[in-house]
Amino acid sequence: MQEHHVVVVGGGFGGLQLVHGLKGAPVRITLIDRRNHHLFQPLLYQVASTVLATSEIAWPIRLLYKDRKEVTTLLTEVTGVDRAAKTVQLKTGENIGYDTLVLATGARHAYFGNDQWESVAPGLKTLEDATTLRRRLLLAFEKAELSNDPAEREALLTFVTIGAGPTGVEMAGMIAELAHKILPPEFRRVDTTKAKVILVEAGPRVLPVFTEKLSAYAKDALEKLGVQVSLGTPVTACTDEGVTIGDRFVACRTVVWAAGVQASPAAQWLGIAADRAGRAIVGPDLTIEGDPDVFVIGDTAAVTQQSGKPVPGIAPAAKQQGSYVARLIVARLAGMPFTAPFRYRHQGNLATIGKRAAVIDFGKFSLKGGLAWWIWGLAHIYFLIGTRSRLAVAWSWLWIYLSGQHSARLITQKETLKDEA
Length: 421
What we know:
Elements (H helix, E strand, L loop, with lengths): L3 E6 L3 H9 L5 E7 L3 E3 L4 H5 L9 E3 H4 L6 E5 L2 E5 L4 E4 L4 E3 L2 E4 L3 E3 L17 H20 L3 H7 L1 E5 L3 H17 L13 E6 L10 H13 L2 E5 L3 E5 L2 E4 L2 E4 L2 E4 L3 E3 L2 H5 L9 E2 L5 E2 L2 E6 L4 E2 L12 H19 L15 E5 L3 E5 L4 E4 H14 L3 H17 L18
Parallel strand pairs: 1-2, 1-9, 2-5, 9-21, 11-12, 11-17, 12-13, 19-22
Antiparallel strand pairs: 3-4, 6-7, 7-8, 10-18, 14-15, 15-16, 20-21, 23-24, 24-25
Helix pairs in contact: 1-9, 4-5
């Protein structure tokens, strides 16, 4: 009898947690991803803002499973799923058969019908996104140092972040610290303390998933760092020359998109219903309707809690879903009943503002300020993979805390810019 073949598409938090949960089970696993590494996305903004190096938040998937002989890793792209034939179609033309399929393909940026903004306002989903933003951010200061045109220099020293969720707040805070506190001694012809850092949110407050009290604290903390917070007015245009906030044009050369996400095309592959964000609608056991052998988890899935609220698209939710599906598969293979539906356990919302302040919302109680920042840091270090990464990130943060210097400020990524031939 052949071993049960589990095909997992996506090496993010949900996919890796699933593979981890199947350790020791009588299965053969094929893990497919477009990239060769697992990425700790919650700290991606710290790569973009020159705090951490890429190697500190990413790990080769093959390395993680070098001792798991039952796990085969394929670096390729999925183009479709044939549910009738129970195969996954690859970009290479190969079809991979499965007994159980788990789609954990994550999400990408959503520009609300303005996809032409992407080249001007990149988001933060991949290492390439982060290094692109880091390059643009650092080059803006370098070009300002070279410019003799006051208007051009002002545009170069204006940085706009669109979207005031955790990523937007964290990114705006780090850019402000970089411009106002770290870089001033290093430049001679330009005063980086005059840089404008603008955070734009179409809604009424920053960090809308947090309590109003914590949102107000975060806004005050950002403004103390020198961030200009614009609330209640959306961005209506985004070009190489700048952004338009409502009817107000702001000349700028560096824009960060943190306003929305769109699920991967997993629902299209499966030919099933999806919500407005493109997430596949799944049942209480995370399977799709009419097919108990196909699971969808993480940012790719639209999962409803008992309260009627959707499960948030965050790392802890994806990990919990991965663990749940692993337990369900093991129970099925053992012939044991497994009828308990997926239950999301909320572990709190966390966001940092600069290098000495954070907000944490645990529901029944909350924290803000310096203590919250230390707890935020310890929580993120705990969830990193491997002792080396934990030590490297802890040392980087301690060095920044004590010295006030960011170390990952090399401009290395090759990128074609409109003014560079």
